[in-house]
Amino acid sequence: MRLPAAVYRVYEARLRAGIPKDAVPAHIGVILDGNRRWARMAGTKLAAGHKRGADKIAEFLSWSEEMGVELVTLWMLSTDNLERDPSELADLVAIIEDAVEDLAEKGRWRLRVVGASDLLPYSTVERLAEAEARTAAAQGMDVNVAVGYGGRREIADAVKELLREKAASGVTLAGLAETIDVEQIADHLYTRGQPDPDLVIRTSGEQRLSGFLLWQSVHSEFYFCEAYWPDFRRVDFLRALRSYAARERRRGR
User: Fold this and answer.
1) Tens-of-pLDDT digits for all 253 residues of the chain?
2) CB contact at 8 A, 238 and 10
3) Alpha carbon distance, N-terminus to C-terminus of the chain
4) Could you tell me the CATH number of the domain that includes residue 103?
5) How many domains does the structure of the chain reveal?
6) Fewer beta carbons within 10 Å, N or C terminal of the chain?
7) Nearest 5 degrees, angle CA 27-CA 30-CA 33?
8) Is beta strand 221-224 parallel, antiparallel or unpaired with respect to 199-202?
């Protein structure tokens, strides 16, 4: 049974009041999971689930910005997703293109597209790049849009780029083997120059990362929510922040 809206507002206010400002994660990664299962549960087409999930994104970003989050990384399309049925994939890619353009049109957030662009249609790469460019001067929160993203692929791409860079400067493979370190690899990731995620949220009840920010999440806190992404509410978000704030972060120490 759903509670009245007034009750939720009171609960939200109490949750928000109980989260110290200095305990809000600076960077949140989000695995937007459960769109297809939401569609099946609702008895509608899969594309309708993806569209409903896309419509949730701006709302989530607004909640994050209100709480003082500085950076959000949204996993919108994985490398595994690219192996889905072609008709469903075409619908999903079109919805993602529209969603990213809609975010850009709001002019509130600085977008950064991350992922293996060579796996995407050229027209998609162009549209996403144009949306990103339009937000360069935005004054709000930073938002990574992970499209065609896979954690293993990102690490492999980082190593390849590092090898090409060192080879161009005359460094031998043996020489690189003697000097390569984690900082050099980190400097060639899609998210180079950005802080690692403090908190990773996954919706739909699944309790795994599935390759999301594999390198960057080594010291992240994880929060798994039962709600499908289209049904994710502000109270769910605030519960995730409350859980994060209550944890003692040791960062491996």
Assistant:
1) 566 778 878 989 999 999 999 999 999 999 999 999 999 999 999 999 999 999 999 999 999 999 999 999 999 999 999 999 999 999 999 999 999 999 999 999 999 999 999 999 999 999 999 999 999 999 999 999 999 999 999 999 999 999 999 999 999 989 888 999 999 999 999 999 999 999 999 999 999 999 999 999 999 999 999 999 999 999 999 999 999 999 987 766 6
2) no
3) 44
4) 3.40.1180.10
5) 1
6) N
7) 175
8) parallel
Enclosing domain of residue 26: 22-150+196-245
CA pair distance 37, 131, nearest whole angstrom: 29
Q: In sequence order, what are the beta bridge partners of 72?
A: 28, 143
Q: Distance between CA atoms of 93 and 95, rounded to whole angstroms?
A: 5
Alpha helices in 169-224 (DSSP H): 173-179, 182-186
Catalytic residue list: 33, 81
80's tokens: 């595994």
Residue 55 lies in a domain: yes
